[in-house]
Amino acid sequence: MTYSTCLQQNGLNPEQCYRVTGAYCGKRFGQKVPERLQQCRQLLAEKIDATTVDVSRRIVRIFENYRSCFQKYRLRAESNCSEVLRKVISGHRLRAAKVVRATMDSMGLLLQALPSLRVIHLVRDPRAVALSRMRAGDSFLGAYTRSSRKSAESNVVAEASLYCHHVTADIRSRLALEREFPDRILLIRYEDVIANPEQTFRDIYKFLDEPLPRVTLENMQKMAQKGQSMNLSTKWQGSMAYKEAVTIVRKCAEFFSLLNISLIDI
Q1: pLDDT over 90 at 247, yes or no
Q2: Which residue among 92, 124, 155 closes a domain?
């Protein structure tokens, strides 16, 4: 039995907890304005207390119910399925999890609780991210971005701005965490993976203090070569209006600055 099967058989689904905050924080990424999402990030990571910020008692109860829901979920998962998970992972020294929606704020408690945990923070050029989401269709765009159709700002600029808002906050949090947990967080740029996969993956395995398996390197090189042939890191340059690209650079100035990317280079 797999861990996910065990959770399903015991009726354990974290979605029921996520729905608790949906009305206030949105049911999916980008559904609320950036300021609201930033507040929700901080409340969920317990960086701020709902009782001390300017929100109604109803909102305070939402976050109290969210934490209560997850506490019950964790207790049931621990009692019913933790042994299944332990058996699955016990034979593997390295365990990796790709997490898309977690914020860097939420990594602090994990880094504190798990001394062997390493975090790889992957970022990508906001112009490429925005164009990718636009091509994927409305379901990949935040409701906040879709509402920009009523304004003069284009969807691609709105989506890039939303991405930068969140990732810039993550970068600032990462910089603070790096001071508290030195040598346990690694920044990787998507563009570097595509341009120089061998060096990038050597850096990753050095960060993990592990030897880089030859078969892993060869597989990553093949995938990177495919990305290079498809121009994945630069495709946006031929598909985006110059004015939009310049506007995104201006709106995402802090993002590029925190990554030490000169405006001359972009």
Answers
A1: yes
A2: 92
